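FAQ: What does the model actually see?

It sees only this:
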Amino acid sequence: ESDTASEISFQCNKHKKTPSIGSHSSDMASVSSVSGSVLSVYSGDFGSVDAQGTVEFALDYDEKNREFQVHVSQCKDLAVVDEKKGRSDPYVKTYLLPDKARMGKRKTSVKKRTVNPIYNEVLRYKIEKMVLLIQKLNLSVWHNDPLGRNSFLGEIEIDLASWDWSNRKLNWYPLKPRSLSAVNGVDHRGVMNLSIKYVPPGSLGKTCPKNPPSGEVHIWVKDVKDLLQLRPSGVDSFVKCYVLPDTSKKSYQKTRVIKRDTNPVFNHTIVYDGFHTEDLKDACVELTVWDHEKLTNHFLGGIRLGLGTGLSYGISVDWMDSTQEEVAFWQEMMSAANEWIEGLLPLRSL
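And it is asked to produce this:
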């Protein structure tokens, strides 16, 4: 038997109703809170400036302190962002991929009015060496715009498994356009096995004691395979669920934590009620997998189930970005009321 979470009401202003006993009301009109879903590493202005120039840096691993160090020295011949003023205000940002959320970003100070900035700064990560070796270092250069979106100036990506760790010298590297792996999110994060079902309002008939007065979406998270192994002992994972655009605590549900397993079996069902058929076109079920630790949880990957139109209730949103597989899965559910639709979907960066 699957574990069933408490029922959560899914509502839009035009469908106000009194929440039933044992459920929580969720106001779908709070579209201003949509930014609560997982953010991409790549948030900024791409394409307006051609990548050019070089960056000088060195890599080292401090065995004693278990610390990965990126010594960012300088850049040369960067692109000019503000052509009228002949100006760029560059800084350098680093991530460890694909585990972006685990380590977060590191960045240097901003050097103003120069295309040849000198930093001489060390960006540090506390991380075990064996975990580091399954990562890639993404180092990118950006123009800082305090009043708008920062502009991408170029990047370099290094596979740390093949890095020569005896090389601690500063070396020059050409900056490249945004990498295809970053654009397409091709890094393998595992796959989620799940089933979903839509129960329309009143569709089960008057004789059925469980006939819902409003529509319900059932989400059965069965298991996940091939998760990223962050530690030698494995990974302590759980799944979060939101129905966007509602990112409030009332929309939030999660599974239990499965410890030390890269192939966790959850067998957990979540039910959201208050769904009208027309809401299925504007809502998006976001399921994300996380590694649980005492101080913070680390994002492993996720899926978004919806029509992927980029719009929700007439408003442009970045989270309505479902892949073709995710869209097809959602459409099949919409066209087969009261039937469980089973799927195996790859986890991705969100």
